[in-house]
Structure formats: C-alpha cells, structure tokens
Write a structure and sequence with these properties.
10 strands; alpha+beta; six-stranded mixed sheet; about 10% strand
Length: about 500
C-alpha cells in the first residue's frame, strides 16, 4: 500500500492554504499558546492531536505543581542538582515551542505568497522566536544564579560546624526546634581594620509555630564573655574572656574583637570549623544569654549597601540627625548627615550609615543598636515575594559575596515557609536593661539578663481571676507589654 496521502486529503490541505499571509501568521502565533493547534488547522490531525495533548499535559502539570505541590517546588528550587535539571528542561521546552511555531507557519503559509510576503512573515516569526529565546535565557540565568547561591552560601553535608544542631527530620525541622535562635553578625573588614570585627551582633529568637520574633542586641564593648563549662575555651578563661591583670578597659577582649582574636591566638581550643570566629561567638553568646544558638547569618557590612540596593532601598523613620562617616577617636567629622523625617527612603549607602553612624550621637552604642533593629525590620518589610522575584538576579549576586551561614541546604525549604510566618507576625525587642545589667560593659550581669530573657519568652501563667467583690474605684494596673518595633521605629523626633 502506498504511503502517499490520498488526493482528496491533499486537496483539502491546499484549500486550507488559500488563506491570507496575515491570517496564516496570526494562526501560527496564536498556536504558540497551544502548540499543535496550528497543525490541526493545517490538516495534520494526527500529529496535531499528539502535540496538543502534549502541550495540555505540560500546562496541566505546571498548574498541578503550582497549586498542589508548592512545597515540593520550593524544595526543588533549593536543590542544586534539580536546578541543573530545570535548566536543561527549560532549554528542551523552548526548542520544542520554537520548532512547533516555525513548522506551523510553514504549513499554514499560502502557496501563492510572493517573496515580499514570505520575507515579512519570516521576519515576524523570527522576532517571536527571538523573544522566546530571550525569555528562556533569562529563566535559565535565574536558575543558574539560584544554583550558585545555594551552593556557595549554604553549607552542605560536609560542613565542619561544631555548633549547629543535627536535624533528624529535614522536612519538618521545627518539630525538633520549636524556638529557633539565629545569631546575626554584621562583620566589618573595611579599610583601616586589622582583620574582621563584628560591629553588629544580634540574636533573633523565633517561635517557629507562629513566626513571632524577638530581637536582642548585644553591645560591642561587653567584656568577660563566658564559655560553656566543659569546653577548652572555658578552661582557658574560667571567669570569661578578659585579662584579670589588665587595665579596666580592654578593647582586645571586647565582644567585637572575639571573632578576630580568638581564632588567631587560640585556634587549637576551637576544633574543626568552617568559620571559627562565628562558632566562638555562637558558643559564648549562647552561654551569656541562656539560649541555644542554632545557626548564624553573617553579612559583610562593607557590601551591605549592595544588598539594600538590590531590594530597591528601604524606608525608615529618622528621628535625629544620623552622621555619615566620621571618627570620634580621630576627631574626624562626618561628611554629611541623614536628616530627620518620616518614611525616608534610603539607598544602599545611606541605609548602611543609618545602621552604623555613631559620631557624637548621644548614647552612641545603644542608639546604633536601636537603628540596626529598625533596619532589620525595614529589610523584612521590603523583601516581599514580588520584590524579591523582580530583583532576584541582583539579590542572588549580592548574596553570594556578602553572606556566610551554617544553615544547611537540606532545611532551606522549611526556612522559606518560616520566613512567610515571620513576615506576618509581630517583631519585638528584648531590652537587656543597660542601667542595671551593663552600665559600662566591663562586668555585665549575665545571670540577670538570662532571667530577663526567659521572662520575656516564657511569661508566667495568668493567675485565676478572683471572685467578684464590691466594685473598686481604683484603676487597674496596666499589664507590661514587650517593646514593639512598630512603636520603637516610629517617627518621634527628639530634636
């Protein structure tokens, strides 16, 4: 039997190709939305049916994943091997779309079309193919950036961290960690600095069920930072990190110097570590505050501006003039000031100095800690899913160079889910009471601070209400409330 098409079939196809060139072009382009539809119009029913079925299957699979398997999609997007497969798959799908578009147009194009019409039609099809290729390249670039970010920033199974927890259930780590404590470090290794100093030290303690977060700021000039009993560092410094025979002020024993000095001078007391400075601080701050610190996130302040720029800036309230630059010790005045005002939109450089400026600021360290908490709050508010997606390539590039952490790749999907809870929950501040507990930083009262933190995180149960008695004219005593960052960061100028 001959494999040639029947004469009647060829005649029907020829009649279908009598349409105008513009009509054929329009049908081919519309067929981009449903690859294979052009084949059906051109009379290639069997092949067209196969392609339409395949295309509908791809659409259906994408809808199913987006609606019913979002957690799995997040997991795949944080797996370097799967991301590489996505890049290859994206290229294959793009080639399929382009091939179907081009062949659809060739079958639909009028037989009587002249050279000019053919050239114009081919040009339009070429532009559509170019647009599809550009979109595919952008998608592939985003996937590659995501893969590089995950591999470079987030530690894998070979991490040498001695302080991060061992997670048994990576799909739901919060069942094991109902309260997550993360050490946030702002590291400054800029010009004129001998090594890295952690000028910004905060702890974020997070209720993993609700997302409620409390921030604790630690002054840079604390001395006698303790170490857990049984560790080599505790044996070397049983009364905390300081020199009992030294002067009253010992800058080399400040909290902000520990990251740099202890690994350099006492490396054998730390043990294996990918980031010994961060592990030292995790151990010491855990002991000082009575909180198990699970992970750390370290941001290089010299590049912090790049991260804020990638987000499109942040918006804060400025209540007093904040210096940009300046050095109190060397009597070098700032180059300018950030002037007070509500809802001030700051670019990366100004956001950095809003968090850091201290030249002749009243209560400089405490004031700077307060502004740093407001900066964290502003970044959380700015990092909406829409904004992150719109600026993802810039954010990924910034993150590769600026962030270090011991958060493992295996629990990144759980962190994404937790991040959404944090955005929708209140953020408060735990005031460690400078006047009572560390008036000068030389001998902080860590026991008192531990008790204060536990009262904040685990308030005592309310006593049973007494039976009603005769009405009293006395006003009820207001209940103490945790300082809320919305109020603390509000606009209330101080002159």
């Amino acid at each position: 039997m001959s494999s040639r098409s029947k004469p009647g079939s060829r005649a029907r196809r020829a009649r279908r190709r009598e349409r105008s060139g513009i009509g054929a072009l329009a049908l081919a382009i519309v067929g981009v939305l449903l690859p294979g539809a052009g084949y059906l119009v051109a009379g290639r029913r069997r092949l067209g049916a196969v392609l339409v079925t395949l295309s509908l299957g791809l659409y259906g699979a994408a809808a199913y994943l987006a609606l019913a398997r979002r957690d799995d999609v997040i997991t795949w997007a944080l797996n370097p091997d799967v991301l590489l497969g996505m890049v290859v798959g994206l290229g294959v799908i793009a080639l399929y779309w382009v091939a179907v578009l081009v062949t659809s147009y060739k079958m639909l194009r009028p037989l009587s079309a002249g050279p000019g019409a053919r050239l114009a039609g081919s040009a339009v099809i070429g532009l559509v193919c170019f647009a599809m290729a550009t979109s595919t390249a952008l998608g592939a670039q985003t996937l590659i950036a995501q893969r590089q970010l995950v591999e470079k920033v987030f530690s894998g199974t070979q991490s040498k961290s001695q302080t991060r927890p061992k997670i048994n259930n990576t799909k739901d780590p919060w069942a094991q960690i109902p309260r997550l404590n993360v050490l946030l470090l702002g590291a400054d290794d800029g010009e004129g600095r001998d090594g890295t100093r952690t000028d910004s030290v905060m702890v974020a303690t997070i209720d993993t069920r609700t997302g409620k977060t409390s921030l604790i700021s630690l002054p840079r000039n604390w001395m006698r930072m303790p170490f857990p009993e049984g560790t080599a560092l505790h044996k070397r410094f049983p009364t905390g990190y300081w020199d009992p025979n030294g002067p009253k002020e010992q800058p080399n024993f400040y909290l902000d110097a520990m990251y740099r000095i202890i690994p350099a001078e006492y490396r054998d007391l730390i043990g294996p570590s990918d980031n010994p400075g961060a592990d030292v601080l995790k151990m010491s701050i855990s002991e000082a505050l009575g909180l198990k610190l699970h992970y750390y996130v370290q941001v290089n302040l010299a590049g912090f501006a790049q991260l804020v720029e990638a987000l499109g800036g942040i918006t804060v309230n400025i209540n007093y003039r904040v210096p940009v630059g300046g050095n109190d010790d060397k009597k070098i005045p700032p180059s300018r000031y950030l002037e007070p005002g509500p809802n001030r939109h700051l670019n990366g450089t100004d956001a950095l100095w809003f968090a850091r400026g201290r030249y002749k600021v009243l209560g400089a360290d405490n004031a700077r800690q307060a502004r740093q908490r407001c900066t964290v709050k502003a970044i959380v508010e700015r990092a909406t899913p829409q904004n992150v997606l719109a600026n993802y390539l810039d954010l990924a590039k910034a993150g590769e160079n600026l962030v270090r952490t011991d958060i493992p790749q295996t629990i990144l999907p759980a962190f994404v889910t937790l991040g959404q809870r944090i955005k929708n929950a209140p953020i408060t501040n735990i005031d460690l009471d400078k006047q009572k507990n560390y008036p000068n930083g030389r001998n902080p009262k860590y026991d008192a601070m531990r008790q204060l933190i536990q009262r904040h995180l685990n308030p005592p149960a309310k006593p049973a209400a007494p039976k009603p008695t005769a009405p009293s004219t006395r006003k009820p005593t207001p209940k103490p409330t945790a300082p809320d960052l919305n109020e603390a960061c509000a606009y209330h100028p101080t002159g």
